[in-house]
Amino acid sequence: MRKVLGSNWMLALLFLGWSLGNLDRYVMNYAVLSITEDLSLSATSTGIVLSSFFAGYAIMQMPGGWLADRFGSRRILIISVVLWSIFTAMTGAAWSLGSILVIRFLFGIGEGGFQPAASKLIAGVFPQEKRARAMSILLTSGGLMAFITPIFSAYVLDSIGWRHMFMYIGIAGILIAVLYWMFIHNPQQAVNVPEATEGKARAYGLQQLFRTPMMWCLLAAYFSIYAVNWGLASWMPAYLTDVRGLSMKSMGLLQMIPSVASFAGLFGGGYLLDKMTGGKEKWAGALSCAVIGLMLYLMFTASSLTGVIIYQSVTSIFMAFVLILLPAIVLKKIPQASTGSAMGMVNTGGQLAGFITPTAIGFMVDAFKGSYDAAFWMLIGFTLVCAAALLSLNYKQGAVMDEPLVPAKVS
User: Fold this and answer.
1) DSSP run (H or E) holding 384
2) Pair 133, 332: CB distance under 8 Å
3) In this predicted structure, what is the pLDDT of residue 203?
4) Residue 317 confidence (pLDDT) above 60
5) How far apart are CA 186 and CA 137, in angstroms?
6) Across residues 60-81, what is the average pLDDT?
7) CB 317 within 8 A of CB 261
């Protein structure tokens, strides 16, 4: 018999799994420097490699969320971890541009169900007033991996190379899947829906999400802020080495500073959001987007490396707040029965941005003969779009919380 764990222990297991998923995503941004050399890739091809994961990841968001709502979080979490671990290990066996594109795409498919399923699990085991903090703890795994990955990559890539590194990460993922099989369990459904109509309720909930203006505003905000997030995460290592002249190890050490800032922003953001009421969070999010845009401008125009790192660190703090704000709104405003589908819908926007932005930046760098200025201006534009989307949020207009999950019959 499997041991039934409390909510905090299940959150710890989610944190462990998502830490490994983030490690693989972040480490690729450093490994790609060696992969580019080994496979003789151009900047545009490198951008396509970085984007290929997000193509699969974006495609799987809504199906992954629907599957979590239909079959429960536990099954989807286990399948997701197993699949992404297999394709992470296979990354180390890539022999050409075509092979690594296919492998990273399938890796994205495998990982796509994790966050919607994890979000549904959090909504099921935590009360509404604690969900933002629980989600912030889960997302701090990204901040932690952003802190560890630069120095981890610098030394591991030098010692064993990128091929063996990906194989070992894949093995670690299989071990985590075993822990999920042993200890994760599905919470009871919080929404009172008759058993005979449960499947219809979930399907109707998905239709409601597509008819809700709030969800489309959130999708636009997700796309915009993740365009900035993944644009920086994917290309900052190359920018610091190509433009600012840093070595791999120096760059790895310096990138730990904004990573610490991001970690603090994620953890503190969840606590602040649980205290905010009455729509104050969307104003705080829009202001944060404006600060991010200003910091990006100061970053690429900075005359010194010290200035670049300072502005990047401030960017990381405010971006972390927006990154936790968006899923917190979903967890608090969407019924638990539809949390997986809702998170899958809005997160599709974020992952489409992850697919488009690295490729777009690679194309711009080639087009402007190594200059990153156009790419930074593009990211600044996305901060303005995100601010506008947040200010457009209207919780009352078609709010899903105010509608029944099962439509009433008209006599």
Assistant:
1) helix 373-391
2) no
3) 40
4) yes
5) 20
6) 88
7) yes
Give SS3 for 113.
coil
204-207: long-range contacts at Cβ-Cβ below 8 A with a sequence spacing of 24 or more?
204/405, 204/406, 204/407, 205/69, 205/335, 205/337, 205/338, 205/341, 205/400, 205/405, 206/66, 206/338, 206/341
Nearest to 77 by CA among 150, 155, 178: 178
Give me the amino acid identity at 239: Y
- Which of 235, 234, 252 has the alpha carbon at shortest distance from 243? 235
The whole-angstrom separation of Cα 141 and Cα 266 is: 9
Alpha-carbon distance values, 218 to 18, 209, 262, 281, 345 (Å)? 22, 11, 21, 13, 9
State the alpha helices, DSSP H only, in 40-160.
43-71, 73-91, 97-111, 114-125, 131-159
CB-based contact 94:377 (threshold 8 Å): no
Tokens standing for residue 329? 């709104």
Would you state the pLDDT for residue 403? 47
Three-state SS annotation for 143-178: HHHHHHHHHHHHHHHHHCHHHHHHHHHHHHHHHHHH
Query: Which letter, b or e, does each residue of 369-401 get, where b requires 16 or more Cβ atoms within 10 Å of its Cβ?
Result: eeebeebbebbbebbebbbebbebbebeeeebe
- Whose structure tokens read 């920086």? 232
pLDDT in tens, 142-198: 778 877 887 788 788 888 989 999 999 999 999 999 999 998 888 765 443 333 333
d(CA 244, CA 240): 5
Closest CA to 218 of 398, 335, 393: 393
- Statement: residue 282 has pLDDT above 70: yes
Share of residues in the chain with pLDDT > 70 (%)? 90
89 neighbors 167 (Cβ within 8 angstroms): yes
Q: If 0-12 CB within 10 Å is exposed, 13-18 middle and 19+ buried, where does residue 3 land?
A: exposed
DSSP string computed for 266-300: HHHHHHHHHH--TTHHHHHHHHHHHHHHHHHHHHH
pLDDT in tens, 263-273: 888 778 877 87
Euclidean distance between CA atoms 364 and 368, whole angstroms: 6
Reported as half-sphere exposure (CB side, CA atoms, 13 A), residue 234 has a value of 31
Polymer length in residues for the chain: 411
> What domains lie within the chain, and their CATH numbers?
7-186+196-397 (1.20.1250.20)
